[in-house]
Design brief:
Elements (H helix, E strand, L loop, with lengths): L3 E4 L6 E2 L1 H14 L6 H7 L4 H8 L2 H23 L4 E2 L3 H10 L3 E5 L4 H10 L8 E3 L12 H10 L8 E4 L3 H9 L3 E2 L1
Parallel strand pairs: 1-4, 1-6, 4-5, 6-7
Antiparallel strand pairs: 2-3
């Protein structure tokens, strides 16, 4: 029997992945790096700590990584966040999960304020036991930190073998596997 379901949010519950990719591509361009959309899109699901080194040298990450990441965050919030939409049926799915007395957690690389907005947008904030954001993890996916944070908040009495992770990317699957969790 499953005791809890941990969901990624971007691309899993919300139609936001392409918007994140466009924001990253635009931010890189603003800082002098013209990247192919497909290359950026493949990296979505990682936080900036894992995404920036894919496209920048270590010196560039050091010199402009923080500024680029902040620029992207502000750009996303202003230009792209208003266009994010929940996938149909998210609340109904969560209600069905709750009917089976299963706990629901979110484990996202999103910033805390962005995650709160997403919870409200999908109308699920009242159905969650736990919601972890980038502030809860030292490293983003594909590292397991965000799932470990969700597990810690769910409590020590939860058996990892009775938890399912639902995500949309290879980064979600790898992070879940590293945390000893089953993915869908």
């Amino acid at each position: 029997m499953i005791n809890a379901v941990i969901f990624d949010i971007d691309g899993t519950l919300l139609d936001s992945v392409d918007l994140h990719a466009h924001a990253w591509q635009e931010a890189f361009r603003h800082f002098g790096h013209d990247l192919r959309y497909e290359d950026v899109r493949f990296q979505i699901g990682k936080g900036s700590d894992q995404l920036l080194p894919v496209f920048l040298t270590p010196d560039e990450v050091e010199s402009k990584g923080k500024a680029l990441s902040e620029f992207r965050a502000n750009l996303f919030k202003e230009k792209y966040l208003p266009r994010v939409k929940p996938f149909p049926g998210v609340r109904d799915l969560f209600l069905k999960i709750k009917q089976h007395d299963q706990k629901i957690a979110l484990a996202s690389s999103a910033r805390g304020d962005e995650l709160k907005h997403y919870e409200q947008l999908a109308n699920i904030e009242d159905l969650l036991e736990v919601a972890t954001s980038s502030a809860d993890a030292n490293r983003s996916k594909p590292h397991p930190d965000i799932f470990e944070a969700a597990l810690n908040q769910l409590g020590q009495n939860i058996d990892r073998k009775r938890i399912i992770v639902v995500g949309d990317s290879p980064h979600d699957a790898e992070a879940a596997k590293r945390a000893g969790l089953v993915t869908v």
